[in-house]
């Protein structure tokens, strides 16, 4: 993230315009049992987002983050990943899956990838031109 942000920021500074959207995680905001290293890296990304928004804002560049939380099954959440995560929490995979939606998500379902993409498109648009430095 840091190296990519540096690369695109150079061009954005020249054109005095641009938006960087960093993809964090709910774990980086609240912590996550069994995922302390992952949560720590995402918390660092959130701090990076806030800091860079202050550094780049004077150049007309906005830096924002998103923290989607639990999403529908993707290629990243494999059965092996779920087994390992359930093991760290001393529960079954079924309990893990049930807990995802019943206990962690007020609306009772995982997010859809299209919903995240739509939100990123909004953040990139002029309609969000005042939003910067937040995740």
UniProtKB/TrEMBL annotation:
GO molecular function annotation: oxidoreductase activity, acting on the CH-OH group of donors, NAD or NADP as acceptor
UniProt superkingdom: Bacteria
CDD domains per record: SDR_c (cd05233)
Oxidoreductase in keyword set: yes
InterPro entries (alphabetical): NAD(P)-bd_dom_sf, Sc_DH/Rdtase_CS, SDR_fam
Family matches, as Pfam families: adh_short (PF00106)
Keywords: Oxidoreductase
Assigned protein family: Belongs to the short-chain dehydrogenases/reductases (SDR) family.
Protein's recorded name: SDR family NAD(P)-dependent oxidoreductase
Organism whose genome encodes this protein: Escherichia coli
């Amino acid at each position: 993230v840091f190296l990519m942000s540096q690369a695109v920021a150079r061009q954005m500074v020249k054109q005095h315009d641009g938006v960087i959207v960093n993809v964090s995680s709910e774990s980086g905001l609240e912590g996550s049992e069994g995922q302390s290293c992952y949560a720590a890296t995402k918390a660092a990304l959130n701090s990076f987002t806030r800091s860079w928004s202050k550094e780049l804002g004077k150049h007309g560049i906005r830096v924002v983050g998103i923290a989607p939380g639990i999403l529908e099954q993707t290629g990243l959440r494999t059965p092996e990943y779920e087994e390992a995560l359930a093991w760290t929490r001393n529960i079954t995979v079924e309990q893990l899956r049930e807990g995802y939606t019943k206990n962690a998500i007020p609306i009772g379902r995982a997010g859809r990838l299209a919903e995240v993409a739509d939100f990123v498109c909004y953040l990139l648009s002029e309609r969000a031109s005042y939003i910067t430095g937040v995740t």
